[in-house]
Request: fold
Amino acid sequence: MGCMNASESFVLAIGTKKGLWLATSQDRKQWSFSGPHFLMSEIPSIGIDTRDGRTRIMVGVRSEHWGPYVAHSDDLGASWTEPEQGAIKFPEGTGAAVERIWQIYPDAESRPGVVWAGAEPISVWKSTDGGEHFELNRGLWDHPHRSEWGAGYGGAAAHSIVVNPAGDNVHVAMSTGGVYRSLDGGTSWEPRNKGISAYFMPDPNPEFGQCVHKIAADAAVEGRLYAQNHHGVYRTDDNAENWESIAEGLPADFGFVMLTHPRRAGTAWVVPLKADGERIPPDGKLAVHRTDDAGATWKRLDSGLPQSEFNAVLRDAAGVDSAEPAGVYFGTRGGAVYASADEGETFTEVSSHLPDVLCVRAAVVAGAPVTAAASA
Amino acid sequence: MAEISVVLPSVLQPLAGGQSVLTTPADGAVTVGRLLDSVTGTYPVLARRLRDETGALRRYVNIYVNGEEVRRLRGLDTEVSAGQEVLIIQSVAGG
Reply:
């Protein structure tokens, strides 16, 4: 899309440990907030679906007491709907129960109504009705490797789903299991981790078992993806057959975030953290790093960010919008949220002192900004 | 016929049409599991807040029969007699 016009506005959704905040803006600097929605429930996943001529916000909700569920709103949070029979639940016979919904991923424009979800325990789900009901992906659930997948600190989950808009390629990343690829729309799955180190295992180059933290696809180059791992930043140009390191030039190769540009080839963002011993921004200096050449070089971006910041940024606590120039958004475990309207060159702190930020998503939506109502 | 009452915490009452107490007729003892099936039958969202899709009681949901938390008795197989009251209370877990 081109520059903003008066009939468009921005929506920013911030999922935290204790609820959801929503905000709208016309300039990506001044934001009108509502919330908390779902107070006292964590919101680890958000999907903003702008297909079909409406804006649907889907959230993965999880109460420590009352369990997880998926809800959606078609009116920017004024009201929320939880399907009566539940949007996501394991079929009888699996003996499993959903613990947490880690990812809600609206599919391409060409597949309206299709929404993917990733959950804990490690599982992938697909909805064909706009996120109101999800079906378990049996191919991955019944995969012979499943008993060997492990749990990262946050739990064993499928946390990244990347779908090729033009074809049937689906890539899933799980902690810990690594990247799995399907060439048939999710019917069958194979691990694809060649070149990615798993230094914490007896064999540092296993077929699977890598601790991948986030993957994202290059929107303009077919078969190119990027991965931020538990140590290691990687790119593949051949649909995940081979991965190569692109960590050189970064202050640390650890981190959780991996974002890609909505249209432009070669542009990606990471937020490095020093690890394993510290897990804070290197030297307590928070910065986003962007590459515009597919990882050959990185540019440090910290204009508008605090001089000192010791909180980590979690894997889904960052997002981009689809405007031109692209907006970049992220939040910290200290409850600060930053927005950039110029691809990370400058950031503005748009919210402070929220609970731990777990998920951030932003979108361009039709219509002038309205003040999202507080509810739920 | 006698009844068994299930007392809901206030946070769950909106999921039961605003009711604080759900009752079901009983002419004898029933298990807590069957009792929950009965009183939440028309409130499926409430049912999912209490038990996951395997039927297991959620970890931080406590159910008391005669002042005893059912995990210390026979869990969801604990029997409740007609005329008794069952309390559902959220545990104090959380931060």
Residues 138-141 of chain A form the longest helix (4 residues). The domain at 8-366 of chain A is CATH 2.130.10.10 (Methylamine Dehydrogenase; Chain H).
